[in-house]
Design goal:
Two copies of one chain form a homodimer. By secondary structure, chain A is an all-alpha fold. Chain A is built from 18 helices and no strands. The longest helix of chain A has 41 residues. Chain A starts with 7 loop residues before the first helix and ends with a helix.
């Protein structure tokens, strides 16, 4: 009935496999501990310095990441298992072979990346929940104008400038120009929410424009990628992307009007734990999946889901329950964004970095001015804080890093240009939070609101 | 300054890489939607039938898993990408190559597995938070006796029975006997909490014994693995494991007495979001990491962390915030446990299954009787519900599946024996929840308590 004994070796392999799974978990747990410590130390320090906590979380990520401590590093940014201090710790604990370490490093990095992606999806869902669709609708035209200016001006100025001043060939120049168009909804809206201006007219225009920008950014990336691939633009694909993105957002909001009531009815019928939060996350994750499936960004779907559920009677109760979930997931996103950046390309003492620094200086100027001018595109809103809107559009954040990441892995961008884009992304991202606080503080009508927010928190 | 154009192919590769990452995310999101739907449908149905929701979540997992719908399947249980309906959906949406599908399937399964593992860690953390250390201490001796009987009786009866009645060679028989020793803390304590008996004397003895069982189970697995590897038992390793596990639990509880006050002090000093929940999770994840690092189970560390934080003044507030986080993570664990089981080995119409069914019937009898008797090992507790304690120890759950998984992948266990162990794990796991309700309902002194719990929920 039983085969002759042939198990010792396969058993070892299976035990090793199970053991590997357990080591991946060990690595994920340790990474999360480091990420949470970095986010809290950075966030609290930032708060003490009267800066938005999210800035501190980013800096915390830079400190534990590829730039300084090498605790949380990722294969995408060129790190190997031997660069990771955490992997060395695991190797010392378990006496692993180099091949095991490499495979554990890969799996662990993928897991943290997925957790970070879920983090930004949950962040956008929460922001959707906090945004008011009617308010957003009121500023829809202004947001569209701001978004378009914020895409066209930096793209044109960046591409033309790189070609004329620095002699960059057309394709890399267009790619770098495209990287200038993005706006980070995540960072801007987190800062706006932290300083209590998410629901101001300015805040709603910025968020609206950032959403539209995200859609435009996806289209620009698709166009640039197809341009690099074939040497010509696939008009059909561009038209498809524009139609898909627009109809997705409008369609989900329209359908949401009907879904609202069913959602409340379902949540009220459920009697087991998670009766509100599970249906909400099913909806949010399904919308994120849908957006991803039609080649838009997942965060767009989560944002739309939040907007829809914001209209329900369960809004407050849901908000309350989403907060601790977001508290656990969102820091993973911000810390890993910081951790993936390698600041060593900034060191001016190394001659080969200087070329990149010169281009970086140019890109930064274009990135800032190109978005600052958007504030003056707002019409029919007397007394609006145009400076705040312009500054709110500046951070490139995760979206800019996606451009830089694809460009750097592809070979379209050479080292100096890559470095320049990364520096531009870092600086614009770090500049916006204090800039926004300054802009809102300098506006007399907002002074009171800021003070009351400060005293509450 | 720029190299000649050499980008189209690498750009494609990089775009494909980025695209892969995005497809993995799409797969994870879709899997989570299916998992949540299965958990809610199963849980609610179970509740309507007056059964504990967790049983429905397991059945929901079986339905969407390898047995029926093939929506959520895993490489560990022998499935390939082509067995996964979700992967076919992704393939249809994105027109992927078979190699891409295989790699996306692998990454997506790893991500869901890590989320499930975080789920059971968070579950044990929550259970630790809900357990009272002083109550647990009062029943410590009884729990130890119950645990030891529950390990020795099924192990001896199972191994000897398999060798004498079924002619199974010694090593596979010992392996199968070892699989009978485990107790699933997760399932039992979830059921106890759902029917409102987690804090009863019986509940505390069961949870305490399950914790000790988990420690013993790890030692048994280590012994069996080293026996299979070398043909002899590494006494030194066994002694090390026993000392490590005991001193870990006692040490963390003792250190916790001091850490308590620092934890509250830290949480009170923090001013940013997540000021309570992030330090708590840093502690829980660090303890889980520590347990894993010294080759114990991560859940042991999370449980210890919960026990320690239960002693703080922040207990209630923390509990409130952990609930929605657990609501999001824990169902992933229960649904995947169900999904990993393949019920097709149960089909008696296929002749080759019959041998396994006979062995299964024997193992099930041993598994039930071997744990039922533990209730009569309790001393010095007049009027205690011995039947409830015995039933509470029956479910093997995830721990039993770990034994079956390692055994099946290793070749120690042939097909019929593998199938028999899996059937035993399923049945014991599914029997316990209704059994526990029955046992507690039949106890007159508990009747009132159950009714009041029923009317609340």
């Amino acid at each position: 009935m039983f085969p002759p004994y042939s198990f010792p070796l396969p058993l070892l392999a299976a035990a090793a496999e199970a053991e590997n799974g357990s080591i991946v978990l060990t690595g994920v747990l340790l990474s999360l501990v480091v990420i949470y410590l970095a986010s809290k130390l950075g966030g609290e320090l930032s708060k003490r310095l009267d800066l938005p906590p999210v800035l501190g979380e980013l800096v915390g990520g830079v400190v534990v990441g590829a730039s300084v401590l090498h605790l949380v590093v990722f294969p995408e940014s060129g790190s190997t298992a031997s660069d990771s201090v955490l992997m060395s710790v695991l190797q010392a604990i378990d006496g692993l072979s180099p091949e095991t370490v490499a495979s554990v490093f890969q799996s662990q990095s993928e897991a943290i990346t997925i957790l970070a992606e879920l983090g930004v999806i949950i962040l956008l869902f929460e922001i959707g929940l906090e945004s008011d669709l009617r308010e957003l609708g009121k500023v829809g035209y202004q947001a569209a104008v701001v978004a378009c200016i914020g895409v066209v001006v930096p793209f044109a100025a960046g591409t033309v400038g790189l070609m004329y001043f620095f002699g960059v060939p057309a394709i890399p120049a267009i790619f770098a120009g495209a990287a200038l168009t993005a706006t980070s909804i995540g960072i801007t809206s987190k800062v706006l929410s932290e300083i209590g201006f998410l629901k101001s007219r300015e805040g709603q225009i910025i968020v609206g424009a950032a959403v539209i920008d995200d859609v435009l950014g996806i289209i620009v990336l698709a166009v640039v990628a197809s341009l690099a691939k074939t040497g010509e633009v696939d008009i059909l694909n561009v038209v498809f992307l524009i139609i898909a993105a627009t109809s997705f957002l409008l369609g989900s909001i329209l359908l949401g009007k009907f879904f609202n009531k069913s959602f409340v009815a379902i949540a009220e019928k459920l009697q087991t734990r998670g009766n509100l939060v599970i249906p909400a996350f099913v909806f949010a994750f399904f919308m994120a999946f849908l957006a991803n499936a039609i080649h838009l960004e997942a965060i767009l779907g989560a944002f739309a889901a939040g907007l829809v559920l914001d209209e329900t009677d369960k809004r407050k109760e849901l908000d309350q329950q989403v907060i601790p979930i977001a508290d656990i997931f969102v820091p993973i996103f911000f810390v890993t964004v910081g951790a993936k950046v390698d600041l060593s390309v900034l060191n001016p003492a190394i001659p080969s970095n200087r070329e990149g620094l010169a281009i970086a200086a140019f890109l930064i100027v274009v990135a800032i001015i190109g978005k600052l001018v958007t504030g003056w595109g707002v019409f029919g809103q007397p007394g609006i804080n145009r400076l705040a809107i312009g500054i709110g559009m500046i951070p490139r954040g995760e979206v800019g890093l996606v451009f830089a990441g694809i460009g750097s892995a592809s070979g379209v961008l050479d080292k100096p240009l890559q470095a320049a884009i990364i520096i531009m992304v870092i600086l614009t991202t770090f500049l916006a939070p204090p800039g926004l606080r300054f802009a809102f503080k300098s506006s007399p009508e907002s002074q009171e609101e800021i003070e009351s927010v400060d005293s509450v928190s």
